[in-house]
Amino acid sequence: MSRAPLPMASDAPAPTQAPRVPRDVGVVIVAGGTGSRVGGGELKQLRWVAGKPMLLHSLQTFQARADVAMVVVVLPRQYAGDPPPWIFQSDAERLLISVGGKHRAESVSNGLEDLPPECKIVLVHDAARPLVSAEMIDRVVECARQGVGAIAALPVVDTLKSVDVEGRITGTVPRDGLWRAQTPQGFPREMIVRAHRDAIRDGAHATATDDAALCERLGLEVRVVRGSERAMKVTEEADFARAEALNVVPE
Fold this sequence. Notes:
Elements: E1 25-30, E2 48-49, E3 52-53, H1 54-63, E4 68-75, H2 77-80, E5 95-99, H3 104-114, E6 121-126, H4 134-144, E7 149-155, E8 160-163, E9 169-173, E10 179-188, H5 189-202, H6 211-216, E11 222-226, H7 237-246
Parallel strand pairs: 1-4, 1-6, 4-5, 7-11
Antiparallel strand pairs: 2-3, 6-10, 7-10, 8-9
């Protein structure tokens, strides 16, 4: 039986190559707080949750991305010089340790200074949110690449009450247009560096609770992208059990 001739190598279709992803994203993971609301002697960001130390969840998630050039982990001064050994269960060539400041914004500023020049997009993430997903990060990065700030967030669905110091309800707050901010928050590098520089100059640095607020005060555009309930912030002791439960729930 005759057979059709095999195609010559030159006749074979060329293999499709995936588009090259620019490695231009820098990440600052803020782990410089004392975690006083959790209690105990160990920092909450170093405690184990959902199978590994809380900080290691975020570090490995960001380093799994092809577009991330460097991750700067900001630790309290007493830990920065002698970090826990498990932190090196990561890509050491894309890891820097920075020293935390007196408040959150100063810690972020310290991390920004340590990012290498090739990082054109900056993500800022709280180590206390260990279960951030790749899909959430994708949405933040995609928005920041459009030249604006971007934060992961969720719309408020609960009824909100204003309450006085004695616990009496003083009113109901309309929830239309209200969102709960999460992290990561992403920015073109020039934007977030300017926002921190101007806040330091104006004396507004110490009171900022997130990086988007520093951009907002300058009138710079910041948008929300869809966050996730899994990206909860571990703040109190009961949150550890909640994070354990959420870890087994698909995104």
